[in-house]
């Protein structure tokens, strides 16, 4: 006679009984296992990710080492070592640009928030002291202290405005000075400063979107030599060995590298000139002039 099939895995009391037998037979413990991965592994993983994010320029070294192994030459590794400070400088410029844009957005939000609080009936000092620092940095604490305890608010605003991207606070300081000395409307002046900064930011974003095609074309042209090397390797021509181990190849590599660098620099200069940001004067843009005393009303 066939034995009846039993359900698997066991459920109900049979499952608990089986679990208890296994625990007592093996001398186990009913304490649940800790989380996986453990806390120390997660901590080291987060530290490694932060280090890799802050040292992205070091990725040039494994790339150069790989090309050096493929071409059996130390020249790609030397080029990677030379490229590390250049890439670090480029990444630092990008980070600085991002911080500048965040400070500009914080200034626009500050002017709009304070103007709204003033329209709601709050006093200027209370309205300014209640605004969070955001991306304006620790120097904003001096502005809050000046607004809360009756200090020189325009001077504190100008001290914060020296940072790149926060130049719009010069206009806010002028509005504050005019409102205190002449009794003009501070809310209206701050709204005009915010509107001027927003219009300039929108114009810059529109121009940047129009130049995106030119930037993409420049990047594509800069990557064409890499594509040619890959195609030559696929066809069995060994272009790396020719470039790195023959006099004619070394001469072509040197000349091509110089032309490539000159082309990238020239294209970048054309794009910067079209964007209206000449070198060395990028921080002066976005600073609205002090409003006239009669215009802040």
TrEMBL record:
- Keywords, sorted A to Z: Cell membrane, Coiled coil, Membrane, Transmembrane, Transmembrane helix
Task: Note down the stretches annotated as region Disordered.
Answer: 277-297
Q: Which InterPro entries match?
A: T2SS_GspF_dom
Q: Does the keyword Membrane apply?
A: yes
What is this protein identified as? Type II secretion system protein GspF domain-containing protein
Coiled-coil ranges (or none): 190-217
Topology class, membrane = Multi-pass membrane protein
One Pfam family here: T2SSF
Where, by residue number, does the polypeptide cross the bilayer? 65-87, 218-238, 244-266
List, alphabetically, the GO terms of the cellular component aspect.
plasma membrane
Q: What is its main location?
A: membrane
Q: Where in the cell is it found?
A: Cell membrane
Domain Type II secretion system protein GspF: from-to ranges? 113-232
